[in-house]
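Following up on my earlier thread - several people asked me to post the actual chain instead of describing it. Fair enough. Here it is, all 175 residues.
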Amino acid sequence: MQKEECFYLGKIVSKYSFKGEVLAKLDTDEPGIYENMESVFVSLGNNLVPFFIEKCSLHKSNLLRIDFEEVKSESEADRLMGSELYLPLTFLPKLTGDKFYFHEVIGFTVKDSVHGDIGIIKSINDTTSQALFEVVKNGKELLIPINDEIINKVDRENKTIFVSTPEGLVELYLS
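Reply from S.P.:
Thanks for posting it. Predicted structure:
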């Protein structure tokens, strides 16, 4: 399994017991849906390695207590500290309406209410405090904030996102 075929679920942040259990901080709004997983991919080096889960349960809001079948000691758990957890994209719950996962809108056209077609989404920059669509039009890159006030509609069928950008934003990039 390649990372491109998976989504980031969270990160192992600490040991829970001397029997090898670990706590993972999940990157999700709904941690409860991952409580009964049978397996997960653990990023070790440059590889995603499948680990089978004996049992897991929520521990204080968004921490998941995991008992891996293959990890039965503190020293084995130490090797996993800081490792990222991934699941196949097919495990993501389907979103409808104007909600979307970042990976699914790459390649969508962005249409502005004033300027019309302002380009194609080539990637999402979520390293800043405000996530941004990185849109390309005629070789120029536009950065469009991703928020509910700007996004009017997501049309999955036609691979188009309709936006109303703040006044002056498009001109800043395309003039």
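The two ends are 43 Å apart (CA to CA). That should answer part of your original question.
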